[in-house]
Design goal:
Order of helices and strands: HEEHHEEEEEEEEE
Oligomer: single chain
Largest sheet: 6 strands, antiparallel
Distance between the termini: 42 Å
CATH topology: Metal Binding Protein, Guanine Nucleotide Exchange Factor, Chain A
CATH class: Mainly Beta
Radius of gyration: 16 Å
Shape: globular
Bound molecules: zinc ion
């Protein structure tokens, strides 16, 4: 039974459209059990900073909760193929939360049209809520962006973004869950 599951999972992975996977390095070090996260209400208003438990789950648990694409992107540091994600061209007002744990990550007010085919923002909704990690994979020096609470891989941040920050948070739609303003 276990063997069948593995086989099925591998086959599923191979047919995922354009999700590129790389080996995850052993970067998870010992760290505190809690993290301070900025909270927001449905209108996007910041309501304070709360200390919350970090969320850590096994691959099996994440797979029950996520679609195959969401799992490969957030938990295996995959990248969805450009222009395939559902939020690249989303111009509605609202908030983008982590698909894994619901932490508020980006507000539509900072979203801009980058032309890359990935949803792009010039700032996170709160610096507490994302974490930058050095990423030297694939022969490039990049800065990976993670959810601060559950360590979901979100995408990368580059320094060729628009004003006022000059940053371009190049995110995967698969890592995000959009809620229109007021919902
Ligand atoms: Zn998260």
């Amino acid at each position: 039974m276990r063997h069948q599951l593995c086989t099925r999972r591998r086959a599923m992975f191979m047919v995922l459209p354009g999700v590129f996977i790389r080996q995850v390095s052993a970067k998870r070090m010992t760290r505190s059990k809690t993290v301070r996260i900025a909270e927001f209400d449905a209108s996007g208003k910041r309501t304070g900073v709360t200390e919350v438990e970090r969320i850590e789950k096994s691959d099996e648990e994440w797979q029950k909760q996520l679609t195959p694409v969401q799992f490969q992107v957030t938990r295996k540091e995959g990248t969805e193929r450009a222009f395939t994600g559902k939020y690249a061209a989303n111009h509605d007002g609202g908030m983008y939360r982590c698909i894994c744990c619901g932490t508020a990550l980006f507000d539509s007010k900072t979203k801009f049209e980058s032309g890359t085919g990935w949803p792009s923002f010039w700032a996170p909704i709160a610096k507490e809520n994302v974490k930058n990690v050095s990423d030297n994979s694939m022969g490039m020096q990049r800065t990976e962006v993670e959810c601060a609470r559950c360590a979901a891989h979100l995408g990368h941040v580059f320094t060729d973004g628009p004003k006022p920050t000059g940053l371009r948070y190049c995110m995967n739609s698969a890592s995000l869950d959009f809620a229109p303003r007021g919902h």
